[in-house]
Amino acid sequence: MTPQDASIRAEELCRLAPVIPVLVIDDLAHAAPLAKALVAGGLPALEVTLRTPVALEAIRIMAQVPGGVVGAGTLLTPGDVVAAVAAGARFGVSPGATDRILTACEEADLPLLPGAATASEVMALLERGYRVQKFFPAEANGGAPALKAIGAPIPQVMFCPTGGVSPKNVADYLSLPNVLCVGGSWVAPKAMMDAGDWEGIVALARAAAALAR
User: Fold this and answer.
1) What is the pairing mode between strands 92-93 and 112-113?
2) Which pLDDT belongs to residue 213?
3) How far is residue 109's CA from residue 5's CA, in Å, rounded to a whole number?
4) How far from the centroid of its chain's Cα atoms is residue 40's Cα?
5) Which residues in the chain show pLDDT less than 70?
6) Which of 36, 134, 148, 168 is catalytic?
7) If we measure between CA atoms, which residue out of 38, 37, 48 comes closest to residue 16?
8) The pLDDT of residue 212
9) What is the CATH number of the domain that holds 113?
10) Do residues 25 and 31 lie in contact, with contact meaning Cβ atoms separated by under 8 Å?
11) For residue 149, which of 122, 130, 171 has the smallest C-alpha distance?
12) Contact (Cβ atoms closer than 8 angstroms) between residue 188 and residue 21
C-alpha cells in the first residue's frame, strides 16, 4: 500500500463519525459488549490501544462485531504492525512516525494514521505521501489554536487530533477546516465498563456521533 492509498483509506475511516473512540481494554469480557455499544451509538471506527496484555485478543473479538471497523493504536514497532494485522486490525494509529513503522504498515497494507506534533513532522509525512495524520498529543501541543496555525501554511493535510480531547474542547477541534474527526476516550469510561453500563456508553456514543463538524 502506498502512502497515498493509505491516506485515502484513512480519510474514509475518519469520515465515518466525528469521534474515534480510543480504548484501553484490560478485561476481555468488556470487548464484545463495548464494541456493540459504540457501534450501536454511531461510532463504528474503534481504536484499541496496544497498552494491555489482552489488547490483541480484544481486537480479535471486536473485529467480529457487525458494523465495526477495529484498528490498533500505539503501534511502536514493526512487530506491533504484524501482530495487529494478524489479530484483524483494519487500520493502525501511531503516536509518532518512524521510517520503520511507516514501511511496516505500507508492506502490510495497513492504513495508518501517523502521529505528528510539529510543522516539520507534518511536512516530513506529507513529503512521503501522508496527507491524513494524527495530531498528538493535541492539548499538550497547543490544542486547537496550534492546529489552526499549522493549517494555515499546510492546508492540504487533514488531521485526527488526539490526546486531551474532551467534551469541553471537542467543538473547538471539529470546527477547524483541517480536522476530519477527533480521537477520544471519554465515550468509554472505565467505571462504566467495569459496571457493565453498556446503555450508558451507547448514550455517550450517540452524543459524540451527533457532534457537528
Assistant:
1) parallel
2) 73
3) 9
4) 18
5) none
6) 134
7) 38
8) 80
9) 3.20.20.70
10) yes
11) 122
12) yes
Rounded CA-CA distance 203/31 in Å is 18
Supply the range of the domain harboring residue 9. 3-209
Active-site residue, selected from the candidate residues 11, 12, 36, 47: 47
User: Which residues, 6+ apart, have CB-to-CB distance to 59 below 8 Å?
Assistant: 48, 70, 72, 84, 87, 88, 89
Check if 47 is active-site. Answer: yes
| Interval 19-69: pLDDT, tens | 999 999 999 999 999 999 999 999 999 999 999 999 999 999 999 999 999
Distance CA(117)–CA(111), nearest Å, equals 19
* Active-site annotation holds for 190: no
- The number of folded domains in the chain is 1
Task: Quote the cell numbers at residue 185.
Answer: 476516550
Instruction: Using the structure block, give the residue that is written with the C-alpha cell 521510517.
Output: 99
User: What is the rounded CA–CA span in Å between residue 172 and residue 167?
Assistant: 10
Question: Which ranges of 41-118 would DSSP assign to H, the alpha helix?
Answer: 55-62, 78-87, 99-107
Strand duo 45-49 + 115-116: pairing: unpaired
